Amino acid sequence: MKNSKMKFGTKVIHAGLEADPTTGAVMTPIYQTSTYKQASPGDHKGYEYSRTGNPTRNALENNIAALENGKFGLCFGSGLAAIDAVIKTLNPGDEVLSTNDLYGGSYRIFTKIFEKYQIKFTFIGMQEMAEVEKHISKATKLLWIETPTNPMMNIIDIKAASDLAKKHNLLLAVDNTFATPYLQRPLDLGADIVMHSITKYMGGHSDVVMGALVCKDEKLAEELYFIQNSSGAVCGPQDSFLVLRGIKTLHLRMQRHSENGKALARHLKNHPKVDKVYWPGFEDHANHRVAKEQMDDFGGMISFTIKGNDVKDANTVMSSLEVFTLAESLGGVESLCCHPASMTHGAIPKEEREKSGVLDSLIRLSVGVEDIDDLITDIDQALMKVNP
Predict the structure, then answer these.
(1) Which residues are catalytic?
(2) Is the pLDDT of residue 347 over 60?
(3) pLDDT of residue 349
(4) How high does pLDDT run on average in the chain?
(5) Around 31, how many Cα atoms within 13 Å sit in the side-chain half-sphere?
(6) Alpha-carbon gap, residue 265 to 276, rounded angstroms
């Protein structure tokens, strides 16, 4: 059965994978080796050195490519290593347009690493493509977007961004970490590259750090493979095995994340001590219509502020949670609470953070797969610690 004809729940378990030809093992073995025997120089079984290729990693790369309806997958030692590979396709003098609301690590590698090599980065609101187009110049080569954005949950129209990119002969890269291919498939909407922090929902169990890229164009894939091999920021076979195992339940986990996210977002919106709730499933969300068109559901990521926007109140809530764990990262089966201003977005200067709404009082939740009643009870008891 061809991967393209499989339903998503079947793909996560079977796509790109085959039983081990040596033993018939159903699960892809962990090929814990750095090198491979050659019969004579250049005469080998497809593998020479594990930086260049490893059967466990390659199985994962094929699986992820199939989930995104792409042709070529590449896995890296982290999501930032995957981003690093994309930016290395550019040249000094090139410009990248990116959203002004994005993961702090992306902002850091753009501004602190690549700006030194004369690559320009411009950060703008991308909710309206007409505004984005005003910033495109002859130097612009890449549009880098997140949707939903981290942590303000803004929605960017991938199809409109793709049309704009093609009009100006630009590449479009989409960070699909928050949505995963279960909820959103950017390549189907015209994106050139999809990036994942596999650490998050794809791995799903908070036990692996990894990144991935997926694309359809062979020439682009060859360039990215060359960078992957030359720079060497690859993931190991043990981590590849763990992610292959995690992906097998991606559809089940994402369904529960989305169900719990919806219930908790609605509860927070009606809570007397909560000010604003950022979640794209609300009908009054600025780009809810776009989210509804390009996503199959709205996921388990929520950001919110407490009335008064007092940082002390936010700290009280975060420190009082018992089921939610106060920690960086997201996307695991366990619910996490994060303070973007000091954690995930600490690399972004305060004045820049606040322009996009990332206040010091903002709280971000990664809603896990626990019983929703326990999650709501936990949030309520923490909010009770805040003065009226």
Answers:
(1) 51, 103, 175, 200
(2) yes
(3) 87
(4) 96
(5) 20
(6) 10
Topology of domain 8-247 in CATH is Aspartate Aminotransferase; domain 2 (3.40.640)
Whether residue 1 has pLDDT greater than 60: no
Sequence ranges of the chain with CATH classification 3.40.640.10: 8-247
> Which amino acid, residue 202?
M
Cβ–Cβ under 8 Å, residues 309 and 301: no
- Domain ranges in the chain with CATH number 3.90.1150.10: 250-383
Task: Please identify which residue in the block is written with the tokens 């559901």.
Answer: 297
What are the beta bridge partners of residue 56?
none
| 187's tokens | 């390549």
Does pTM surpass 0.90? yes
Over residues 244-302, the pLDDT tens digits come to: 999 999 999 999 999 999 999 999 999 999 999 999 999 999 999 999 999 999 999 99
- DSSP β-bridge partners for residue 325: 336
What fold characterizes domain 250-383? Aspartate Aminotransferase, domain 1 (3.90.1150)
pLDDT digits (tens, 9 = 90+) for 26-59: 999 999 999 999 999 989 989 999 999 999 999 9
- The residue written with tokens 């339903």 in the block is 7
Residues 6 or more apart whose CB falls under 8 angstroms from that of 366 comprise 300, 301, 329, 330, 331, 332, 335, 336, 337, 338
**What integer pLDDT is reported at residue 379 of this predicted model?**
98
Report CA-CA distances (Å) from 33 to 48, 82, 200, 233: 11, 23, 26, 17
Taking residue 354's Cβ as centre, other Cβ atoms within 10 Å add up to 14
pLDDT, residue 135, reads: 98
